[in-house]
Amino acid sequence: MNHLPLIIKREYLTKVKNKSFIIMTFVSPLIMVALIAVVAYLSQLNNDKERSISVLDETGVLSDVFVSTEHTTYNILTDTNLETAKELVKAKSEFGLLYIEKSQDTMNVLSSVRFYSDESPSLSIMSSLEEKIEKKLSETKLRNDGVDIAKIQASKTNVTIAQETFTGEKTSKVDSYLKLAFGGAAGYLLFMFIIIYGNMIMRSVIEEKTSRIIEVIISSVKPIQLMMGKIIGTSLAGITQFGIWVILGSILVFVLSAIFGISMSELQTPSQDLMNQAMENPEVANEVQLAMQSFFNLPLANLVIAFMFFFIGGYLLYSSLYAAVGAAVDNETDTQQFMMPIIMPLILAVYVGIFTVIEDPHGTVSTVFSFVPFTSPVVMLMRIPFGVPIWQQFLSFAILVATFMFTVWFAAKIYRVGILMYGKKPSYKELYKWIKY
Amino acid sequence: MNHLLVADSVSKSFGTFRALNNVSISVPKGSIFGLLGPNGAGKTTLIRIINQITMPDTGSVLLDGEALKPEHIQNIGYLPEERGLYKSMKVGEQALYLAQLKGLTKPEAKKRLKYWFEKLEIGDWWNKKIQELSKGQAQKIQFIVTVLHQPKLLIFDEPFSGFDPINANLIKDEILQLRDEGATVIFSTHRMESVEELCDHIALIHKSNKVLDGKLIDIKRQYKTNTFEVGLQTESVTEVTNAIKEKFEVLPATFKNLHDDVKLNIKLNTQDSSNDLLSFLTSKAEVHHFVEVVPSADDIFIQTVKNN
Predict the structure, then answer these.
(1) Measured between CA atoms, how close is B75 to chain A, in angstroms?
(2) Do A211 and B142 touch (CB under 8 A)?
(3) Most CB within 10 Å of its CB: which of A377, B36, B53, B294?
(4) pLDDT-above-70 percentage for chain A
(5) Interface pTM (ipTM) of the complex?
(6) Which of chain A's residues have a Cβ under 8 Å away from the Cβ of B87?
(7) Under a CB-based contact definition with an 8 Å cutoff, are residues B216 and B201 in contact?
């Protein structure tokens, strides 16, 4: 008799109706968006702060570089000495005083510039001041040496090497970044999914053990059915949660940008300025177009299909192990020693993915790890955007499925014996014996 | 005799530990069969084999003449000693789920649950969570779930633990009623008084072996020692006692009686009958108390376990 649908339904409904699950599902996107909003608001707040800085320039050559902006006002002090200037700044409770000491050699001004303030200034303020002085000085030096600044500016060139495959597909650096982003996102998503929902499966197995219902259930259904029902039911709950997150997230972003749209556009951060400038620049606009193009050049169909297969395969492989660990122990604190061997290959996969696939997506290390079953789902998902021959994908998936069948068999063995064992925490040796029962 | 369940030389080992060694039992249809044994004797292993939770290494189990197969799960109701329910699930939902796992359809399960909930007066629990119930209350639910699919064979492992005397009696009456309606019951317990009350047949398992098996009454006959407990009223206590001691093997006895001049356990030789003893006693004193000592299930249990 096949009770699988019934078990899946129960596991799914229990998870989905669970209060903490509901709270997690609906509150975490809110928290995420709220967090982003708070950060955006705070940085805006910071930018809005107006400062006034007094500048006492004894050399007299640098005064003209300090032009007041919206947020920073520069007061150029003249005909005064350092001590009186300090008193003056303190009295007016200005942010600080920039002092450029007069020296014989303008070029050595570097060592004689000081900034006085009550609170230590932020890195960005300092670097902005330094940049202004450096620029002026180097221009002065060039001019002294008789170099035409305009010519230097005109000589600046920007080289972009256009990439093309032998088959004529245009690629670009942007393309590589895009591929990396896609592969990375897919691999990382799988990693997170396994950790979150694998743990959920494990806890659910432990719950059945501690509530002692297991023997009642197991007298009605086969342990492997119960295990598979649990894995599938929990995964469906996970997919539901992810789906709700995606939908809620997009709605929230949409609503928020509608409400705060105006204030957001007012928030002209430097990077946005840069973006706007870039958009006006034809070369960069071209680059963006290329990115769009390379997005459509990605092996999208292959990516989506491979993602589904490797995601499911990898997830089932690991979650069956999680179920086995849950069956082997009595409570969550005992799971530690068995978790290590499960987490290690996962972490290894993510590191291999990040460090070697970026370096060389088709190198020996990445290729080998994209076949090793415990790392292949993550590593292969990261490699696929760079174009992996179909036969490699098939072979890797076949190995994954074979291993998956083995781990399910193995987990079912442990599960079958473990769920009826209470009391002491088993050792690896005992687990090995269980397999032979 | 028609047997519902026949286990034939069943053996099971876990690693090097032999949990069951060639154990055979036959459970007659419509009987209450006591499966007895000290802790760790192998009872639970045997019950799990009958429930197809574990498979025997050797030997076979027949249910109604057929070798055990997955479909038989529907014909068995099992109340394990280690019992429990999903704590955060509602009573009604949970009972429905477990009934469906036993092959009932949802409407049928609902109908039967309603009947049982009314019978045990727990109708208002339907929407409560298990964690809101007391242990005894949860046990009631568990009992209902065990019998709901009207199995031919019911297996109860310590069914009365956790019940107060009133509810224990209620459950006992339900078990007897189920038997009368045609169910066969395997009953595993350490509580010998309930064995005396309920069981027709017993099997005693000790250290993985079956050491005793049969109708409870036959076993009692087999274990009887031809001993009679007598209470006599007489003026001359020592004389009478000595006269009896000369003729019979005598042990002191304690029981409650209005006249307690002489209280003895008298063991008869095989050639003497109880009537011989009685006429001897009447000639010596006035007999107020004369009962054959019947070995209790408790005595048999302890004696058998000690001898093995």
Answers:
(1) 10
(2) no
(3) A377
(4) 84
(5) 0.77
(6) 207, 211
(7) yes
Total count of residues recorded for chain B: 308
**Contact criterion met (CB < 8 Å) for B98 and A216:** yes
Distance between CA A391 and CA B294 in Å, rounded? 81
A→B interface, C-beta within 8 Å: 1, 3, 6-7, 10, 14, 18, 207-208, 211-222, 420, 422, 433, 436-437
State whether B83 and A437 contact (CB < 8 Å): no
* CB within 8 Å: A213 and B84: yes
For chain A, which domains are there? Answer: 51-149 (3.40.190.10), 172-256+270-436 (no CATH)
* In the predicted structure, residue A269 carries a pLDDT above the cut 60: no
pLDDT at A163 over 80: no
Q: Is the pLDDT of residue A253 over 60?
A: yes
Go through the domains of chain B in sequence order and give each one's CATH number.
3-221 (3.40.50.300), 225-292 (3.30.70)
Q: Give the C-alpha distances (Å, rounded to integers) separating B268 from B223, B224, B247, B275, B276.
A: 14, 11, 9, 11, 10
Cβ–Cβ below 8 Å for B76 and A213: no
pTM of the model: 0.72
Q: What is the pLDDT of residues A194-233, one digit of tens each?
A: 888 888 888 888 888 888 788 888 888 888 888 889 889 9
Q: Can you list the alpha helix ranges (DSSP code H) found in A49-172? A: 82-91, 123-144, 149-155
